[in-house]
Amino acid sequence: MLRLIQRVPQKVMIACSGGPDSMAALDFLSRGRRDVGVAHFNHGTDHSSNAESFIRDYCNTHDIPLVVEKITKPKPSSESWEEYWRNSRLNFFRSLNTTIVTAHHLDDVCEWWVFSSLHGNPRLTPSRNGNIIRPFLLTPKSELVKWCINKSVPFIVDPSNSDIKYRRNFIRNRMMEDVFVINPGLHKTISKKIKARL
After folding, report:
1. What does the pLDDT look like over 86-123, one tens digit per residue?
2. Dihedral, CA atoms, 98, 139, 176, 19, nearest 10 degrees?
3. Domains contained in the chain, CATH given
4. 132-133 and 128-129: which strand pairing?
């Protein structure tokens, strides 16, 4: 079951990568009586052209307005690739004069909490950041994938998500299984923290 933790405005754009998380969010919100568009950011990676083509085809087929931005500035030496992509993507979303919905979910929050804890400052993913809202923070990733399967929503998977040279991927693919062995109730613990901040 997909859960919303905050009101989603009548007119929004969904930040959509083509993966199961954002495609489930797009389909879910499109089924309501909202004016829904898609914002897609092309990161300039090997997978990016396939993702952009997939999103364009889907939006054309479903008559969904689409805005695409491609990364153009060179990466500063002071930023990691993850920071570079995140900052460039955020700048694109903030340039759009509307509410942007991202499909960040409960597993993302748990991973960020572990990541930030390892750096001595445990933090929760905020439900709002300027014009960006994250209404699915209490929904596990498995429910988003299940939504796509049950509703026959197509999606693609970025193979770089398995590349553990990126720190978040290392935590997601190598550490989180052990984290849940140590604390099987982590989803509940983090959910309570999220609700306490609402």
Report:
1. 899 999 999 998 999 999 999 999 999 999 999 999 99
2. -50
3. 11-197 (3.40.50.620)
4. antiparallel
